[in-house]
Amino acid sequence: MLLSIDWILFLEKLILIAIVIFASLGIALYTTFAERKVAAVLQDRPGPNRAGPFGLLQPFADGLKLIMKEEIIPNTSNKVLFILGPFLAMTAALMTSAVIPWSSDVHLFGRVIPLQIADVNIGILYIFAVVSLGVYGIMIGGWASNNKFSLMAALRGASQAISYELAMGLSLIALLMTTGTLQLGEIVKQQIEPGHWWNIVYQPLGFLIFIICAFAECNRTPFDLPEAENELNFGYHQEYSSMKLGFYLFSEYVNMFISSVVMATLYFGGYDVPFLNENLLSPNVAAIIGVIALLVKVVIFIFIFMWVRWTIPRFRYDQLMNLGWKSLVPLALANMLITGAVILWLGK
Amino acid sequence: MQALTNRAQPVNRKPMTFLERLYLINIFKGMLITFSHIFKKQPTIQYPDQKRPFSPVFRGLHVLNRDEEGRERCTACGLCAVACPAEAITMEAAERLPGEENLYREEKYAARYEINMLRCIFCGLCEDACPKDAIYLSETFAPANFNRTTFIYGKQNLLIPNPLTEPEAYAKAKGLN
After folding, report:
1. Which chain B residues are Cβ-neighbours of A208 within 8 angstroms?
2. Interchain CB contacts (distance < 8 Å): A and B
3. Residue B8 to chain A, least CA–CA distance (Å)
4. pLDDT for the residue B129
5. Which domain holds residue B98?
6. Mind telling me how many Å the CA of A41 is from chain B's nearest CA?
């Protein structure tokens, strides 16, 4: 009987996975539109407004355009890796969503369904493992193109991601010292508990380091060196066309969405609504409110991503490395030490 | 060295303070500036739906005029072609035959009249040179096209519609309605 499978559980998870993936893709789709709109508004322009009401159909027009383009595979490229690159980027971007707690449990048909695909007890480690896989998409794509600009961009991207992962991990260690768990569901539940603030209150410096590193991990401005248009000619996806290019561009937005979710979950209480006692509501209503609360937080983070992009110019490569190794890593270490000292002093 | 103007500013080479080197405050200031632009009025004009009015002296595409009886005013004297600094105008004259008095006002008319809109600089000297008030510059400009030859406008493009047979098109071309 060890091998008996709970088929309903299997079905539940399958449905949840489908919903999460389609929701991520849908949100990423509209993030591309929001990016253009935010850029436009910050620059006193109206932005795309021709396709559909308020230009709402613009992402579909963009997608259609990309699909209709000619698929070009360069003669001298490594064909297998060239095709594999964008898929790796996309897969790595989507995989992170597996451990995110989207909301509190739903009660349906007499079953308690957690709105989390897998509540593994090493959730944060899993996220780090998958996020660092994202480098392979850039690296393989850039190398397989057999183009020196792509290769240089890929090298930059890889070294950038590795340098910033270090500071990111160190900033999270301080967070883990206060929460005492790697389980994301547990971290959120701790923040919801009455008398307990969101983690941003306990770890403001850690959050600052984390958000800077998240910008670098997503290759967003001011750290968009891998695709620096003016010096590297579009960077690692220069040789790509059609939907393979679309996958690369799209995975950037999925990444942005996922890292916004992670930030909201770790530092801003996940699906918690401030000053609202969820226990007084019926569990299903609380779950729906939770999803909405999480999405609102995510939208705010995505806006900040865009806001920063259209404000700050790109870093130079040596400045990027200086910031990463000489400022963020020591800061994260100091943050860790201080956190540890405070915890010891309070005798927690 | 003496400064040429009194506006010269010495470059500030003071080393940055710790707060300045952090950059965070300056980044935040910059973000406030971009955020304030959300509330600014957009100067955009939604072109095909919304058009900016031209000034009354705007010089656009040429129109070959007719008189009130619908006859072509041009007598093919060639003064416009002589006046044209860009040499964009060519014409061929022909003699009016008996029975064509309702088509052409003068005894000589332009059988072929072409303006190369790619050469034209829209200076309006042809308008000034014309003794018969036959050519004037309208308030429209040349639309884009894929083919260079389409920018050589012949009489069929330039002539204003006949006010007697097509009064509506004539009024539209004149900009009366």
Report:
1. 24
2. 34
3. 28
4. 92
5. 62-174
6. 5
CB atoms under 10 Å from CB of B95, counted, come to 11
| Number of domains comprising chain B | 1
For residue B125, what pLDDT is reported?
Answer: 92
Mean of per-residue pLDDT scores for chain B: 86
Q: Are A217 and A164 in contact (CB under 8 A)?
A: yes
Residue A83 lies in a domain: yes
> Inter-chain contact B35–A308, Cβ cutoff 8 Å?
no
Q: Is B34's CB within 8 Å of A307's CB?
A: yes
User: What pLDDT is recorded for position A1?
Assistant: 53
Contact residues for A331 (Cβ-Cβ < 8 A; gap 6+): A167, A205, A209
A39 in any annotated domain: no
- Enumerate chain B positions whose Cβ falls within 8 A of a Cβ in A: 24, 27, 30-31, 33-35, 37-38, 40-44, 46
Is there a cis peptide before residue A222, judged by omega within 30 degrees of 0? yes
- Identify residue A164 by its one-letter amino acid code: Y
Residue B21 maps to a domain? no
pLDDT of residue A179: 85
Taking CB atoms and an 8 Å limit, are B33 and A311 in contact across chains?
yes
Two tokens, residue A246: 């679309």
Average pLDDT, chain A: 84
- A→B contacts (Cβ < 8 Å), by residue, are 41-46, 49, 208, 307-308, 310-312
As a three-state string, the secondary structure of A229-273 is: HHHHCCHHHCCCCHHHHHHHHHHHHHHHHHHHHHHHHHHCCCCCC
Interchain contact, A46 vs B44, CB within 8 Å: yes
How many residues comprise chain A?
348
Amino acid at B71: R
Nearest to B34 among A42, A45, A208 (CB): A42
pLDDT of residue A2: 61
Q: Is A44 within a domain?
A: no
Domain, as residue range, for A76:
70-346
What is the per-residue pLDDT across A197-221, written as a single tens digit (0 to 9) for each? Answer: 888 888 888 888 888 888 888 878 7
Q: Which amino acid is at A124?
A: I
Stated pTM of the model: 0.78
Q: Do A41 and B38 touch (CB under 8 A)?
A: yes
Q: What is the CATH number of the domain that holds B90?
A: 3.30.70.3270
Residue A131 falls inside a structural domain: yes
Q: State yes or no: ipTM above 0.85.
A: no
pLDDT of residue B50: 84
pLDDT of residue A75: 83
Q: Do A307 and B35 touch (CB under 8 A)?
A: yes
Summarised one tens digit per residue, pLDDT across range A226-239 is: 776 667 777 777 78
**Over 70: is that where the pLDDT of B46 sits?**
yes
Share of chain B above pLDDT 90, in %: 19
Domain membership flag for residue B145: yes
